Amino acid sequence: MHQKFESKGKVCVTGAAGFLASWLIRRLLLSGYHVIGTVRDPGNNKKLSHLWSLEGAKERLQLVKADLMEEGSFDDAIMGCEGVFHTASPVLRWLSSDPKAEILTPAIEGTLNVMRSCKKNPSLKRIVLTSSSSTVRARDDLNPNVPLDESSWSSVEICERLKIWYALSKTLAERAAWEFCKHNNIDLVTILPSFVIGPSLSPDLCTTASDVLGLLKGKTEKFHWNGRMGYVHIDDVALSHILVYEHENAYGRYLCSSKVVDNNELVEMLSARYPNFPIPKRFEPLDRPHYDFDTSKLKSLGFKFKSIEEMFDDCVASLIEQGHLSSA
What we know:
Elements: H1 2-8, E1 10-14, H2 19-31, E2 34-39, H3 45-52, H4 57-60, E3 61-65, H5 75-78, E4 83-86, H6 99-119, E5 126-130, H7 134-137, H8 156-161, H9 165-183, E6 188-193, E7 195-197, H10 207-216, E8 228-233, H11 234-246, E9 252-256, E10 259-262, H12 263-273, H13 296-299, H14 308-321
Parallel strand pairs: 1-2, 1-4, 2-3, 4-5, 5-6, 6-9, 7-8
Antiparallel strand pairs: 8-10
Helix pairs in contact: 2-11, 6-9
């Protein structure tokens, strides 16, 4: 058994305490990897206790300090790793005085700082970057009859005009990563998840889990339910990262989304499934273009997605278990 763990090698996961990173680390440890996770404060036991409780953590997890905005701070964490999973990315707070500066600079510069550290590491085989499906769908020429695939890129001009700062930050950060890796001959693969749903390993809810909780409690103001959205299980996102890291023929970008539905389809499904929760019956119709995702590229590697019902069932069970939601 010990030999199996040795053979999987050492990898780095940035932003280790995050929603996705925690799941990714869980899956990497279960697969037998030695994981170096970067966090802002390795001494914050309250925030990191869920990582230390993971199976294999005591034997094969190290948490080290690194800061996205500090060049060189990832050098020690990345040196000697064969793979780097860059998941860390700023999320915009609702009450922000300068959203553009708060999210764009950290996303782009943070990504480049990680890439610069990767360039110094002679052991590196591949980087897997967590991007977003928002990097493909902010366009004004959407054809409702043609699903979006990895060849599509969001329009910077549209993102700026509509102030879609998250999509803009992910688009510019991914483009910067591709340019850097091409220039430095580094093997990069990117995963583009849609809206990620599922159980949270950390007791502190991330933005997406808070949004789901609000929806289940009947609140819709200030939330991300903006017309039509793709959804994907958190475990599928973690597993897809490992798949493209391990698969020799993986290349380029990979959309990661189980199903795209309209808001009203979603609340209809949720209301039928959870009749005891005050879920809104309908949303105000939004004039948003119809689109779907073509995920055949990831499926061609043998990937199968969990259903939208399963991801919400798992999310609700987790919210109840952690005391955020009553099971009434």
